[in-house]
Amino acid sequence: MLEDSFTELERTRLEKLHALQAEGLEPYPTRAEQTHTSQEAIDAFIRAEEAGDEIPIKVTLAGRLRALRTMGKIAFAHIDDRGGRVQLFFRINDLGEKKMAELDKFFDLGDFIQASGYMFRTKRGEVTLYVEDFKLLAKALRPLPAAKDEMVDGELVRHATLSDPETRYRQRYVDLAVNPDVQKIFKVRAATVRALRQFLDDHDFIEVETPILQPIYGGAAAKPFVTHHNQLHQDLFLRISFELYLKRLLVGGLERVYEIGRDFRNEGVSFKHNPEFTQLEFYWAYADYLKVMDFTEQMIAFAAEQVLGTTKISFDGKEIDLTPPWNRLELRQGLIEATGIDIDEHPTAESLEAAMKAKGLTAKPGSSRGKLIDALLGDFLEPNFIQPTFLYNYPRDISPLAKNQPGNPTVVERFEGFVGGMELCNAFSELNDPLDQEQRFLEMGRDYKSDDEERHPMDDDYLNALSYGMPPAGGFGIGVDRLVMLLTGRRSIREVILFPHLRSLAEDDSN
Q1: CA 183, CA 181: separation in Å to the nearest integer?
Q2: The domain containing residue 448 runs over which residues?
């Protein structure tokens, strides 16, 4: 039972709850009558004060009790709400002895309180609510971790004592309650999604929804999560990408489409990977990867400007400028500069593997040429792309959904965008030839039995859709979580996901 886990302090709070009920007071009333946030009440008072209006600003505020000082016949408190923090003033002459006794007897820090009255300015100059009535909205049985308040440059700054990352992620509700900076992260996240949506809407894209449960997964190189539909006796997969469904919509005549939603990949967890994550993908008829490249840098700069008021950010101790144009570097040239290996001189996996070993570089035996190139990219290029950089023209065999570069059957029109030493986005000129697409699938050996993350099942319906004709198009995908990491200066994806995936406590205890 819940009570079995209570400490002595928490049992004292539980006794207060029972005492409230014994006196006919509801510790969890159904209704709240909040009329203003704290900031709205303060602003209304200041406007009236400046206008010389002596009519009292009457308000009802609600929030979490953060501080309480009782001093005989008066008391001061502070509450927090979404608008900020405001002071409350209680006086026995107005409230009466019974109500003042309730405040002292039943209320604890962390409780939610409703207070009604009028705004005034104290002798010290603080805009405060003169409380004429109050009630408990919710009794907190567990106390929040203590916080230390101090004045910094004339402003009250709260430093929370909850700092252990594991505890913070497992109990995000407590983390949000005591760490104001964490609330700011998720306000930035919401603003980022809003800005991306606005940019696309303003450019005549329409937002759509595609299936999360899919009979055939595809659109990316990743291992899926598998589930089962009991009534249909059918295995289904949590989607790893929106791509193949969104491109079906291009076939249907929707020329500019996008989706913002969750993807799921059954892969490792790291500072930049979570099994479920938020992705934005768009597909744009009659565009190619060069147009998408220009559009991408404009969209990211727009989002930064809307959210932060600037395109200059600080990440991992470095200042990064998101202002277009971003750097552009061809993959082949980048590898020549970084490793001295010209991949065009090594058209087979065997040749490239030998060249890597000759340079003293690690090469995983049995890897395809494309995977070897991808490994070189990850080791020698990606970590050094601190300023925004587009790396373009990728190997065909790791890009099965992208169009070939004209005149070069081994290279496709694909780019990835890197910022802060990590991949941010991926885009193609989309392959729209159904016969070529079928051959690509066959070459990749895409069957259900393989556990190779580069392999996926043949999607016959997608090929059928392409057979009806899909216009030339540019496609794009970006990890929203990673973009929020950049805009908030956070090095771990867990910091920008409200409830990141963690090992179970039982599993941790067994190791």
Answers
A1: 5
A2: 182-326+387-510
pTM of this structure: 0.91
Contact criterion met (CB below 8 Å) for 60 and 99: no
The CATH number given to whatever domain includes residue 272 is 3.30.930.10
Residues 212 and 66 in one domain: no
Among residues 82, 489, 186, which one has the least CA distance to residue 310? Answer: 489
Q: How many CB atoms lie within 10 A of CB 348?
A: 10
Please, are residues 393 and 411 in contact by the beta-carbon 8 Å criterion?
A: yes
* Distance, CA of 415 to CA of 329 (rounded, Å): 10
Annotate 470-480 with b (16+ C-beta within 10 A) or e (fewer).
beebbbbbbbb
- Could you tell me which of 95, 92, 85 has the C-alpha nearest to residue 71? 92
Q: Which two tokens stand for residue 77?
A: 């408190």
Task: Give pLDDT tens digits for 432-486.
Answer: 999 999 998 887 764 444 556 556 678 999 999 999 999 999 999 999 999 999 9
Distant-in-sequence, close-in-space partners of 90: CB < 8 Å, separation ≥ 6:
74, 75, 76, 77, 100, 103, 131, 134
Picking from 462, 382, 379, 392, the residue whose alpha carbon sits closest to that of residue 429 is 392
